[in-house]
Design brief:
The complex is a heterodimer.
Chain A (H helix, E strand, L loop, with lengths): L3 E4 L2 E4 L5 E7 L5 E7 L6 E7 L2 E4 L7 E4 L5 E6 L8 E8 L11 E2 L3 E5 L1
Chain B lengths: L2 E3 L3 E5 L4 E8 L6 E6 L6 E6 L3 E5 L2 E6 L4 E6 L8 E8 L5 E3 L3 E6 L1
Parallel strand pairs in B: 2-11
Antiparallel strand pairs in B: 1-3, 3-8, 4-5, 4-9, 6-7, 7-8, 9-10, 9-11
Classes of the chains: A mainly beta, B mainly beta.
Chain lengths: ~120, ~110
């Protein structure tokens, strides 16, 4: 089945120790997104890629970076995790971004990050 | 600013009907999405509305009124598995999704 896969599902790291989260998709979608979601809050968009074009949200901290080496894979790097970065990190994809149902975003299962 | 409002929490009884409302104020409008999110899991797509009116999909229906900046998600014949958060999201003129914080729906037997 076509899907969005995230690894690992659970990640524990220490304060200040870099961590990388990965996302892959078999949907062949052009657009990939990284969201941060804290308990009982709306998902917060960190970045998105339209093909290889990188779009950083204005309020995404410099501590967060991303790479998309090819259509299928996308990585989220947290350079120096703080306690406030503990959250669920969601990867999503959509076929396009031009309006209409093609913009429907499909989510991976998420990676829950714990910072000790 | 851009804003999506939905109730924080609702309670309903198994077998009943519940309506979850969403009001929005955004810069432009390119469609409204409803997602279901079970605790600790990712959101899953439920519906998309871009024209006024009601879209029905099995036990779930979604309604949109663009002039009022209003949508609702209607869930019929509630089942225990419908206990989840329901997120309303609007695509603005820049094709960015503006998310609500979600409505936690509690189903009681």
């Amino acid at each position: 089945d076509a899907m969005v896969i995230q690894n690992p599902r659970y990640q524990v790291t220490q304060f200040g120790k870099p961590v990388t989260l990965s996302c892959s998709q078999t949907l062949n979608h052009n657009v990939m997104y990284w969201y941060q979601q804290k308990s009982s809050q709306a998902p917060k968009l960190l970045f998105h890629y339209y093909d290889k074009d990188f779009n950083n949200e204005a309020d995404t901290p410099d501590n967060f970076q991303s790479r998309r080496p090819n259509t299928s894979f996308c990585f989220l790097d947290i350079r120096s995790p703080g306690l406030g970065d503990a959250a669920m990190y969601l990867c999503a994809t959509s076929r396009d971004q031009g309006g209409g149902p093609v913009d429907t975003q499909y989510f991976g299962p998420g990676t829950r990050l714990t910072v000790l | 600013g851009q804003n999506i409002d939905q109730p924080t929490e609702m309670t309903a009884t198994e077998g009943a009907i519940v309506q979850i409302n969403c009001t929005y104020q955004t810069s432009g409008f390119n469609g409204l999405f409803w997602y279901q999110q079970h605790a600790g899991e990712a959101p899953t797509f439920l519906s998309y509305n871009v024209l006024d009116g009601l879209e029905e999909k099995g036990r779930f229906s979604s309604f949109l009124s663009r002039s009022k900046g209003y949508s609702y998600l209607l869930l019929k014949e509630l089942q225990m598995k419908d206990s989840a958060s329901y997120l309303c999201a609007v695509m603005d003129s820049n094709y960015q999704l503006i998310w609500g914080a979600g409505t936690k729906l509690i189903i009681k037997p």
